[in-house]
């Protein structure tokens, strides 16, 4: 009886550990998806700013609108406790995010403000995109320096 109970307890522990790890898969993938969408659209705007991609107000505005849309995603649902680099595989999110969530959210809000400025710049003309990209880049850098672990 004791052996059966011990075996069941071990199986339950392993199953609960796997379930917890799986709980992080969706939020981590969503966070990474946000970064991919931001990167793709920043690449379009960067190409326009450099003259490597033809500028059209429609394409520039669509990219800027997509960036704004990403910054409007509610972040708390994407950052469950324990989904940091030490507690979950496949993420570079530092544990400091959870210790300083107010600061993280302030940095995310700064990205949103810079993205809103990009919307105006994108509709203004090609020459306005570069300075607006600089503000977005600064917001990204501020957060990544504080809350993203180096790539292995």
UniProtKB/TrEMBL annotation:
Keywords: Electron transport, Heme, Iron, Metal-binding, Signal, Transport
InterPro entries xrefs: Cyt_c/b562 (IPR010980), Cyt_c_II (IPR002321), Cyt_c_prime (IPR012127), Cyt_c_prime_subgr (IPR015984)
Pfam families documented for this protein: Cytochrom_C_2
Xref: PROSITE patterns: CYTCII
Gene3D superfamilies per the UniProt record, alphabetical: Cytochrome c/b562
Domain of life (superkingdom): Bacteria
Signal sequence range: 1-21
Protein's UniProt name: Cytochrome c
Organism: Mesobacterium hydrothermale
Organism lineage string: Bacteria, Pseudomonadati, Pseudomonadota, Alphaproteobacteria, Rhodobacterales
